[in-house]
Design a protein that fits this description.
It is a single chain. With about 140 residues, this protein is mostly beta strands. Helices cover about 15% and strands about 40% of the residues. It has a 7-stranded mixed β-sheet. Strands 2-7-8 form a 3-stranded mixed β-sheet. The protein is globular, with a radius of gyration of 15 Å. The protein starts with a strand and ends in a 17-residue tail after the last strand. InterPro entries: ATAP (IPR016092), ATAP_core_dom (IPR000361), FeS_cluster_insertion_CS (IPR017870), HesB-like_dom_sf (IPR035903). This is Iron-sulfur cluster assembly accessory protein.
Length: about 140
């Protein structure tokens, strides 16, 4: 397990693997407090699928798995598995509210193509894994 901790600054630390916005941290801390899980964090991961080839996932997790990168930003523990890290490096987790409600999103500098709903993406030159990704945003 790779543990990385950064000070709770008001902005991402250069070279930081993954970060969370101030509003995202406020929402995440509230959700984590209600989870009933001691020492829980937000697991951010990538899976195949979605309209652009890859899809973001997030879950409350109190487990630290072998190979995880752990970043503490703005008081929130972010856990990323070793397979997802290259696609998430430099990303910021945020919480966005709009007319359709609200939810967590990922601002990913590695994504070269995004689905209109913001939950899936493709990296430069990458094909959709396993022929997936041709559906619209409703295919999540």
């Amino acid at each position: 397990m790779t543990a990385t901790s950064f000070p709770d600054a008001g902005h991402p630390v250069p070279g930081q693997e993954i970060s969370i916005s101030e509003f995202g941290a406020q929402r995440a801390l509230a959700i984590l407090a209600q989870s009933g899980k001691d020492n829980a964090g937000v697991r951010v991961f990538i899976k195949s699928g979605g309209c652009s080839g890859y899809q973001y996932g997030m879950a409350i997790d109190d487990r630290e798995l072998e190979g995880d990168t752990i970043v503490v930003d703005r008081g929130v523990k972010l856990l990323v598995d070793r397979m997802s890290l290259p696609l998430l490096r430099g990303s910021e987790v945020d919480f966005v509210e709009n007319m359709m409600g609200g939810g967590f999103t990922v601002h990913n500098p590695n994504a070269t193509s995004n689905c209109g709903c913001g939950h899936s993406f493709r990296t430069d030159g990458a094909q959709s894994p396993d022929g997936e990704g041709s559906g619209g945003c409703g295919s999540h």
